[in-house]
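A reminder from the course coordinator: this example appears on the midterm review sheet, so study it carefully.

Given structure:
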């Protein structure tokens, strides 16, 4: 991977907000991890061994039922981290983290993050602030499913997802979006076709691009704007990006290597 393409820790807003003292304690333990589409970071049968900080990837937090079916509860991108629930409770809830847009993330051993969290200082405050944005996403998702059309839900989901990326493109099929939203693929295809006819998006198999955010926002429900307002409050709270030491020595770990429990579906 060239230096131009290699994501930096500051591409994740939480890592970027850490003071030099916290960086010195945590950064020696960072690993850069490529996240392929549909990789399951953890599920109800496994425990999260690492805390992930996406840079240019998206991970969907999903409620997983005993029969294997699931529905997306929230989306984690470069504004946050994956694994916050393991610091709020010792009980593993029936959720899983599924990569919905491929890219990279930095990760830290859960034990190292726990040690820093237990200092009751900067990282704990950042994680608690971030928890509020997750709570808002989950609550608005429940309202949206109950009260808004599939087209409105798709608009909300596309906007929330691209807000957490540095580009307006999502690599996934209608079938996979249906899994995310808990609806039939045919319903997603119909809604996406309508959005394309209206000039809000373009799509071909496996790739969706938002070409007119203004149109998409005009068709989205109020749930998106509630979630965006909460995320904007978080980003406004985070300190300015710190000056990072040389991070070229951070190792790259590929999921599925020996000792890794991640599943690629």
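Designed residues:
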């Amino acid at each position: 991977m060239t230096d131009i393409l290699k994501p930096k820790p500051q591409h994740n807003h939480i890592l970027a907000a850490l003071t030099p003292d916290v960086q010195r304690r945590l950064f020696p333990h960072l690993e850069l991890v490529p996240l392929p589409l549909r990789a399951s970071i953890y599920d109800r049968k496994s425990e999260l061994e690492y805390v992930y900080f996406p840079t240019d990837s998206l991970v969907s937090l999903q409620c997983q039922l005993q029969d294997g079916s699931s529905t997306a509860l929230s989306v984690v991108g470069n504004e946050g981290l994956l694994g916050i629930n393991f610091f709020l409770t010792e009980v593993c809830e029936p959720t899983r983290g599924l990569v919905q847009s491929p890219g990279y993330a930095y990760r830290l051993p859960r034990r190292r993050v726990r040690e820093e969290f237990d200092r009751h200082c900067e990282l704990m405050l950042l994680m608690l602030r971030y928890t509020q944005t997750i709570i808002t996403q989950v609550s608005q998702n429940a309202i949206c499913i109950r009260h808004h059309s599939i087209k409105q839900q798709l608009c909300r989901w596309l906007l929330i997802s691209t807000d957490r990326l540095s580009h307006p493109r999502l690599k996934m099929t209608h079938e996979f979006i249906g899994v995310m939203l808990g609806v039939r693929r045919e319903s997603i295809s119909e809604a996406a076709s309508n959005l394309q006819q209206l000039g809000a998006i373009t799509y071909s198999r496996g790739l969706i691009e938002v070409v007119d955010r203004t149109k998409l926002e005009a068709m989205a429900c109020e749930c998106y704007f509630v979630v965006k307002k909460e995320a904007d409050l978080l980003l406004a709270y985070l300190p300015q990006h710190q000056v990072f030491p040389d991070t070229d020595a951070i190792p790259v770990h590929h999921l599925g290597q020996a000792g890794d429990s991640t599943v690629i579906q």
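The two ends are 24 Å apart (CA to CA). The mean pLDDT is 85.
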